[in-house]
Amino acid sequence: MKHTKPVFSFLFVALIFSCSSLGFQSDELVIEDEEFGIEGGRAADLVHAIPTSTPASRRRVDLESSSDSKSVQFTLEHAFGDSAYSPAGTFTARLKTWSHGGKTLTKLRFSRNGLTDAEKDAFKRLLEEDNFYTIRVPSNVLNPPGKGYILSSVPARCIPRESLDEHFVIHTDGVDILALNYGSAGSCQYPRPLKFPKKWSFNSYTVMKNSEQARRTPTFTEELLAAETGEEEALKAPERSFWSKYWMYLIPLGLIVMNAITQAMNLPEEQQPAGQSASQAQQPIAQRATNSAARRR
Amino acid sequence: MAARFFLGFLILLLHSIISCGVYEDQVGLADWHQRYIGKTKHAVFHSHKTGRKRVVVSTEENVIASLDLRTGDIFWRHVLGENDPVNQVEISLGKYVITLSSEGSVLRAWNLPDGQLIWESVLQFSAPSRSLLHVPTKFGLERENLVFVFGGGWLHAVSSIDGEKIWKKELYTEGLDIQQVFQQDDSDILYAVGFLDSLQFVAYHISVKNGEVLEESKKSFPSGFYGSMLLVSQDILVALDASRSSIVLINFARGSVSFHETYISDIVPEVAGIVEIVPSKLSGLFALRTDASLVLFRFNSIGELVVENTFSHPTILSDSISITEGHQVFAVMQHAETKVHIAVRFVNDLTSDALKETIELHPQRGNVQKVFINNYIKTDRSHGFRALLVMEDHSLLLVQQGKIVWSREDGLASVVDSTTSELPVEKDGVSVAKVEHSLFEWLKGHMLKLKETLMLATPDDIAAIQEMRLKSSEKTKMTRDHNGFRKLIIVLTKAGKVFALHTGDGRVVWSLLLRSLRISEGCECPSALKLSQWQVPHHRAMVENPSVLVLAKCGPDFLQSGVFSIIDSYTGKVRSSQKLPHSLLQVIPLPFTDSTEQRLHLVIDSNFEAHLYPRTPDSIDIFLREISNIYWYAVDSVEGIMKGYSFNSKCKADMEDEYCFNSKELWSIIFPAHSEKLAIIATRKMNEVVHTQAKVIADQDVMYKYISKSLLFVATISPKAAGEIGSVTPEEAWLIAYLIDAVTGRILHRVIHQGAQGPVNAVVSENWVVYHYFNLRAHRYEMSVIEIYDQSRADNKDVLKLVLGKHNLTSPISLYSRPEVVVKSQSYFFTHSVKVMTVTTTAKGITSKQLLIGTIADQVLALDKRYLDPRRTANPTQSEKEEGIIPLTDTLPIIPQSYVTHSLQVEGIRGIVTIPAKLESTTLVFAYGVDLFFTRIAPSRTYDSLTEDFNYALLLITIVALVAAILVTWVLSEKKELRDRWK
């Protein structure tokens, strides 16, 4: 969370300086870039992507990068609305063969073909009709198309910004492609306004995702063992403060003290008139005594 | 200090919430439980002179039950489980019920009076075959009491005393189909007869003593056999030839086999079409079912076939039973509209009836499908008969003396879908007398309760109070109540019958066997039944009744056209019914209603074309307005492919049908066949209400839940690990959990659990998923939770921005934006295996949630969702504790008091439905399986209402007493003051 803090502040600044919708779109990209670790910035046609796998597997990739690996290619095809599919670009990846026989794809690169004029017109028509732009890749890289093609579509109006910004997330399992998440690089407004890009070229970001391992269920066997052997007796309860231990005695004590104090406060006041009367009572006696004494005298 | 006090109080509160079981005297107040057995397959009567009269039945729900012949109550019952279907049931030695199950591989004996398991034998099994059970009727003293079982290609002789296998003999060759195992009375020879490749007749003569094959006779029949054969008399069997045009008589007496073929058209010229042998054992007679009628045949003394009788359809025959030496009878059931004629006839003399009765049947029961008869001696020493009828709606009736003695609605054991309906609004104009009466009752009740509170009540009073609570007329009224506890649960059963059950006491308000789903209407096996709310009137609730939609098709083939019926929820009358012109693959209720409040439904056919219902111009307007925002998905679980679609245009096939739309494929996900096999797909409930998207966590931070109606949870397992638990090593087994957005086909989250194996159960609600599986490494069941949070809204925490309106909370969200989600997950061990899992739903979604888990013991366990919080840590901080986070443990606790079903069992539980009541704190729970169970639960206790037991009288009296005391003391003090002033 720490590194997102500056992002938030940047976001806030951006929000202040721009109209909300535009600023919003550009900001989210920054976050995404950091998250997925895309290298190479925003080169027009070629983006390197690093598979976001677990650190362990990444290390293995580094270790065995010199071992036998071959390059594979598979094509990306696209269709405009209901049109037929035509090649749109090529993915290049390295195929790694592990000692246990498994194969994985790494170092995915993508090169997109430039849009022909006919395609540009078709795309324009899609934008006007608010129709879907569909892409597909084979489900198996080694012997395409495998079990069939993996399709993904996006409303064409989600793509254009400065140029045509697109974002691929390819979910793989070995040499099989499970799913292709395709869409705009940022957010897509709804209702979708008609907007033409300034530059008719694709700006592609590609991310390859392998599977993520689930966390193991936490086990507290050690504690259970400790409980069985009776070791927990040695573990003393954390020392409680004096107050928390004896509050039940202290409160009545406090009450008694308070009571005593108020009594003590009251006592002198009451004693004073009582003392006065006593002295008054005594005085006549004394006076009388003195008088009698005087009389005796 | 104060925080500590608060914490202590909180913990106390927490414990009080968790332990919310019911007290003994609360059982039956809000819950009801009904026990069923399912559609009867076999029935054996046990009505000897002494002891209670009973009938032992086995059913299609794999239940063996002993029913009281007088009342139809269940004496005892055993549910054998899903993969242990009962093949045969017999009574042996007059005290044991012998059952053969699991394709003839498990033989069990149950004690007839109390249903205890006496013994169980697992028999050898080599290949699937017919499973036959032969229990000799005459037991000699010197003979061991053997039962003979054929199943899995082996013939076994098993002692009926202790289940010991005396001998076994393999009778398996490729293509051999043993069809009958029988004994000719008193002989020591057991016959096993069958067909070899449907071309050859084979008969084995086997010694009863040691299983030796004494003789094996075979004879081939060049034109081949069709179907199965029937034993007509001691040594004569009948079968049909392959073309079903002639009856083949097989005589195998004295070791030699001879065939005698008779063309059906020669003896019954009028018969045409497909014929079939009726599998009723009639000792000397047999029946053929043709398209038009049922023909009864007999062999005359010279072995020729003679037509004895012809019955028009629909006619059902029973097996024959012997009443006296040499006298056998059988029953013939014939329908005449709503009436059924029962005739019991002698096998030897068909002209005279031993009994002739006519009974009136409820029209919603359909036709008789099976009949079992039993005889008894009447008071005048003549023979009386009782008949057990299995009806088309799976109900069971006992008929005696022309009357229905009892009936059981056993169709309710196979509920396939359910929905609810509100009851009618109470009309004005209740009579004064009624109010007075109820007021009097109310006062009386409260006086009694007061007595109980003050411990003055006698045991009679306490009994009266309990009875009053259980039989409160409030509970069973046919009108809507203030709290929304009274509703109609509408269920659809496998037979195509719709029942409306009252939530108060579970009684059947109305039932309807859909005409279009009856066999008589050409619907052999209704399938893919679905029930959905069609119309829920709000504006005109006083004048219009709600209705439900039943969608079904006749037969498992998905090309079959569907049946579309709309039924009035209050009366159970069919409003409209039609046969769909297209097939039925999937039904999608849309979140839109037309101007008459009919819900829009899309029916997807096998060409992926969508048909919109209701077919009104109004609905098409609404649909076309929203068409660009409607998406759907289809799953091919065999191939492991998921595809998403949208609608783009009118069907190209028929342009004139404006209610038909083409689908356009938008996305696809293909699971690799070698590593993943689809195990489960779970979605959120359509009607779930989420109170707030924001979740305030410790340190005053806010997280936004990712709430999307299109969130799918998909779990796949490794194909190797698809079998039983323990069949693979942990290295070969894994489970992959996906969170998929069904609109764009995006995988929002994908996680692998290594060493995990199915069966997988899952429930999705709000922004979380809980799934249950087996962990092979830890040798325990495990439950995992995934919570998904939306980061794109996370910067809406600034109050200033909220004040200035610079937030994006009200802007519409498009799922085509790149999702920025954060996922939190955690796994916990769980002791039970799980059959079904669901979550409570409340009216506003404020009340905390509980998971309802159908356990392996067929009980429903409520587990607080807070135990399945991914943010639980071993040492929660002070602020987390205040938030209510429970310290992390590795196992989920099972608190005995939290069983919703308390002491009851919902045998064979298949589904739990939760229905929100109007009262926010309360959820209605309906669990179904072979049994039905209903109750209402309050996951956070009833914080918004006083309980029904609340003693208003005591409160009133306390107030009155206080007021009186105040007055008295006031008067006294006035007087005292006056006295003081006068001093």
Automatic annotation (TrEMBL), chain A:
UniProt-listed CDD domains: EMC10
Pfam families the UniProt entry points to: ECM10
**Which compartment or compartments is the protein found in?**
Endoplasmic reticulum membrane
Provide this UniProt record's keywords sorted from A to Z. Answer: Endoplasmic reticulum, Membrane, Signal, Transmembrane, Transmembrane helix
Where is there biased composition of kind Low complexity? 271-289
Any single Gene Ontology cellular-component annotation: endoplasmic reticulum membrane
| Annotated region (Disordered), positions in chain | 269-297
User: Taxonomically, which superkingdom?
Assistant: Eukaryota
As given in the record, the signal peptide range reads: 1-23
Q: PANTHER family attached here?
A: CHROMATIN COMPLEXES SUBUNIT BAP18-RELATED, ER MEMBRANE PROTEIN COMPLEX SUBUNIT 10
Similarity comment:
Belongs to the EMC10 family.
State what protein this is by name: ER membrane protein complex subunit 10
Source organism of the structure: Dendrobium thyrsiflorum (Pinecone-like raceme dendrobium)
The organism's taxonomic lineage, starting at the top: Eukaryota, Viridiplantae, Streptophyta, Embryophyta, Tracheophyta
UniProtKB/TrEMBL annotation, chain B:
Domain ER membrane protein complex subunit 1 C-terminal, first and last residues per copy: 765-982
- Subcellular location per the Swiss-Prot or TrEMBL entry: Endoplasmic reticulum membrane
Q: Which Pfam families match?
A: Beta-prop_EMC1_N, EMC1_C
> In its keyword annotation, does this UniProt entry include Endoplasmic reticulum?
yes
UniProt KW Transport keyword: no
Q: Where does it sit, as one GO cellular component term?
A: endoplasmic reticulum membrane
**Family under the similarity heading:** Belongs to the EMC1 family.
Name by which UniProt lists this protein: ER membrane protein complex subunit 1
Q: What is the lineage of its organism?
A: Eukaryota, Viridiplantae, Streptophyta, Embryophyta, Tracheophyta
